[in-house]
Amino acid sequence: MQRYRLTVGEREFEIAVETLGPDHYQVMLEGKQYEVTLESLAEGAPVEVQPGLTPVEAPVAPALPAPVTSGVALLTAPMPGTVLRIDVSAGQTVQRGDPVLVLEAMKMQNLIRAPGNGQVSEVLVTPGQTVGYGEPLVRFAAEGR
Question: Distance (Å, rounded) from C-alpha 8 to C-alpha 6?
Fold first, then answer.
């Protein structure tokens, strides 16, 4: 992962960025993991800004687990939302970056990927279930366990 300093207004953040594919990145910001897609806008295309909106800081929640390398790891919700689809089942082996589930938040579908190589021990949510930030979604056991 490449490390960067991101400045927004007066605030500075340290971020880590990993390229997942063309225009597709995984970003770690303040202990939270996000999947980001960057799309080039046509030159001169207007950008809508709604007046009166102020950024709101999200409450501090547990960070996502480190990649699964040994023992057991828990994948937690990177944001509050509704589970739309689950792409894994107990006993299934996954590789880092494999799709695990889709979480809808703010009318956007967010693909949640495996944090590392391992085996799904237990799926802790069901489609349609609402989850809060940091709530457990899937339990993993490392490969070979």
Answer: 7
Rg, C-alpha atoms of the chain: 17
Cα 115 to Cα 33: distance, rounded to the nearest angstrom: 10
What is the domain partition of the chain in residue ranges? Answer: 2-37, 72-141
- Choices 2.30.30.100, 2.60.410.10, 3.40.190.10, 2.40.50.100: CATH for 72-141: 2.40.50.100
Low-confidence residues of the chain, pLDDT below 70? 41-72, 142-145
Kindly report, residue by residue over 21-46, the tens digit of the pLDDT. Answer: 777 788 887 777 878 777 776 665 55
pLDDT reported for residue 25: 80
